[in-house]
Each structure stands twice: as structure tokens, then as C-alpha cells.
Amino acid sequence: MNSVSNEQFLSRQANDPSFENIWQELQWRGLVQVSTDDARLEQALAGDPINYYCGFDPTAASLHLGHLVQLLVLRRLQLAGHYPIALVGGATGLIGDPRQTSERSLNTRDTVDGWVTSLREQIEHYLSFEGANGATMVNNLDWTGGLSALDFLRDIGKHYRVGTMIGKEIVASRLESDEGISYTEFSYQVLQGMDFMELYRRHNVTLQTGGSDQWGNLTSGTELVRKVEGEHVHAFGTPLITNADGTKFGKSEGNAIWLNADMCSPYTFYQFWVNTADADVIDRLKVFTFLTREDIADYEQKVADEPFRREAQRRLAWEVTSLVHGEDQTQRVIDASAALFGRGELETIDAPTLEAAGTELPTAQPDALSDEFTIVDMLVATGLEKSKSSARRTVNDGGAYLNNTKIEDPEQSFSTADALHSKYFVVRRGRRNLGFISLDVAKS
């Protein structure tokens, strides 16, 4: 975090005291779709602290919004006094869980090792590793890497029945596809089941959480512990979050919304949340923030009474962007958004934030500009005007701005010396039509 330590930031978080127990709050927030036993889980979570875990496979260099749901579940349970264990799958990441469509490409060991390190660093941001119930981080490669194939088949594989395994929804759908499923991905559920058993033995873990699409893998673990150890352990799955219109949540133009700032800029991240539809924003506040149900009820009323103010969306964007990128960075993003539309000084916006904001705007095409250019050239290059004649009319009518300064002479020339950070121009037509020029791109 920028302004305060991570522990100080985490100390501000709290569960809603209006609920009798954490299970009831999780259900109200819409975070429980399926479980091994609702009544026994509620009893367990309302009693003495238990050890629980969630696994994160390193199949990319960053976690995404789907993982954020699980991280916040881990954190809410930790705030209720329970002991979280975050598992990064250095072993299962080498295999990859089966996808609905096709076989995964296997990544090299070096690549997966690098992603393990990256994911561990990200996870540390969301949990407290201090105090009486500080979190623990584990890697399943520690108990899988030295296991021989014979020992795996004899000690673990003998407890699995092929008929049950092929009955799992994801496996069944892949078997019916043209591509089928490899033995490698077919075995993934056995590896994940072994994780639960090992964590039960090593850390007395009695609960696993995950997405409902992983339910077959989650119950693989509960069944293995029951067969081998004779103990009843728990699992619950969170729903897959979709938008009210049925589209997949967390996708922006086909790309995942990553938690890593290098893969999804804080500006883009903030804009994703502030653009949440009215029909979705209350559910998002429940899942992704620590606001109480009283606070959320107030925003629900505001959405109903004055949706045009978008107060719920702005609060959502502030809360989640601050959670992921810190309050200082979130404020810089807000300041940049205001400055783009003339409500602040563009000169105060740092280059990475300004460039990230510019990628969201119409941009000049390569070779569209020479070494010196006019506002007319820039209006046309960014597509804000279709022709130079119409661009000149806009300038003469007082509607053309460059870096928030009104330009009144259509023939005035500009160059690198006039650019923000020596390479950026923000072009504006009227009050709200923006274009962006990066000289590095425009002259490439």
C-alpha cells in the first residue's frame, strides 16, 4: 500500500456485526451456491476457529477478478476468527484444471515457478499474516514433487473410482467433445483431492472454498479425506458471477480484468467498476466490498431514486480499486479522469496514469502526424473530426482544446516541446469528446 502499511489497511476491514454469524453474512452477500452441508457448515463456522483453505493455480502471471472473489471469502472468514491457508498450486499449475472447450497448453516449469512467485506476492496483499489467526501460504509441489508415480497410484489412485470421475460435469462435457480429454487433465481432480488430504493431515484443515465450477474438484477432496481418514470435512462453492444481461463478468473486450497493475492499469480497473450497470451494482457491492448491509441498502435506494448520479458505481469503484491498488493510486486515477475533462491540471498526472487513460480514448494512427502539426491535424488524426474543414470550424467556434487549453488559431503549430511528459497530447472537442496522441505511437 502507498499511504499506510498493508496491516493498517487490513485493520480497517470488518465483517457486518448485524449478522448472527459469518455463514449468514456469506449467504446474504450471495457467496454460497453449493455446499456439502449448510447446517453443519454454519455450526462449524459459528463455533471455535477452524482451519480452511483455497487453492490458486499459477496458469498466468496474475490473479483476476474471479480469484478476487475467493480472496475476499478467505478474508471474511479470517475476520470471523478462522485460520486461512492460501495454497498456490506449483504442482497442479503444471497440469491445469480441465477447461470446458479444449485441452490446456502445458507451460514450462520455469514459467510456472515464476508465476507461483507472482501469485504468492499478490495473495499476501489480501490476508493478514500476523496475529493469533495469521494466514499460512503453502505450495502443493512440496508434497507432490517427490511423489513417485507408483506411490501416487497405490496410495491415492486406489481410492478413486473411474465411474465417479467421468461423471464429474466438466469431465463428462469434455468426453462428449470432439477433442476429448487427456489422462493428464483427467487426473487433475485426484491431485486436488490429495491437496485437501495433505492439508488435513498437516494443518488440520476441515474446509475448502472455491468457485462452484470447481465443485467436482472440491468434493474430490472431501471424499478422499472421508475414505482415507474417516473424517467428515466441508466445502462450499461460490457462484460464477455474471452480469444481469447474461454476459460473462470480468471481461473487457475479451480480456480478463487482472489484479496486476502491469497487465490491467489502475485507470482501466477503476473504469471497469465505475461502468457497472445499475442492475449489477448492488450485487457487486455485496461481493466485493466490506460495506454493511445498511450502507448497501442506502445505495440501493439511491440507484432506484437517482440512478443518473451513479453514486453506487463510484463508491464501488473507489472501494475495489483502493483494495487492489491502494487509496493513493485510486485518487490519482480519479484526478486523471477529472483532468481529462478540464476539471483539473493535466500536468499533475504522472505519465503511466496518463498513458493508461489515453488507451481508453480514440488515438491517432501511426504516421498521422509530422514533426510539427496543428490542432486541425490532431482533431482529424484522432477521429474527432472527419475533415480539416470541419476541424477548422470547430476551432473558429471556440470548441477545440489541447491539453485543456482552448486553441483559437487553427494554424498554430505544435511539437514535442508542447507535449505532456514530452510525448502526450489530450485533444478535446467541446466538453466531452476526447482524443489522445502518444508521439511514440503516432510516429512509429
From TrEMBL:
Record keywords: Aminoacyl-tRNA synthetase, ATP-binding, Cytoplasm, Ligase, Nucleotide-binding, Protein biosynthesis, RNA-binding
Organism listed in the record: Yaniella flava
Reactions this protein catalyses: tRNA(Tyr) + L-tyrosine + ATP = L-tyrosyl-tRNA(Tyr) + AMP + diphosphate + H(+)
PANTHER family, per the entry: TYROSINE--TRNA LIGASE, MITOCHONDRIAL, TYROSYL-TRNA SYNTHETASE
EC number: 6.1.1.1
Self-association state and partner proteins as the record states: Homodimer.
Occurrences of domain Tyrosine--tRNA ligase SYY-like C-terminal (ranges): 360-433
PROSITE patterns reported for this sequence: AA_TRNA_LIGASE_I, S4
Enzyme class, spelled out: ligase
Function: Catalyzes the attachment of tyrosine to tRNA(Tyr) in a two-step reaction: tyrosine is first activated by ATP to form Tyr-AMP and then transferred to the acceptor end of tRNA(Tyr).
Family label: Belongs to the class-I aminoacyl-tRNA synthetase family. TyrS type 1 subfamily.
A GO term, aspect molecular function: ligase activity
The organism's taxonomic lineage, starting at the top: Bacteria, Bacillati, Actinomycetota, Actinomycetes, Micrococcales
Binding positions for L-tyrosine per the UniProt entry: 53, 188, 192
Presence of the UniProt keyword Kinase in the record: no
Residue numbers covered by motif 'KMSKS' region: 248-252
Location of the protein in the cell: Cytoplasm
Positions occupied by motif 'HIGH' region: 58-67
InterPro entries per record: aa-tRNA-synth_I_CS, aa-tRNA-synth_Ic, Rossmann-like_a/b/a_fold, S4_RNA-bd_sf, SYY-like_C, Tyr-tRNA-ligase, Tyr-tRNA-ligase_bac-type, Tyr-tRNA-ligase_bac_1
Any matching Pfam family: SYY_C-terminal
Binding residue positions for ATP: 251
Name of the featured protein: Tyrosine--tRNA ligase
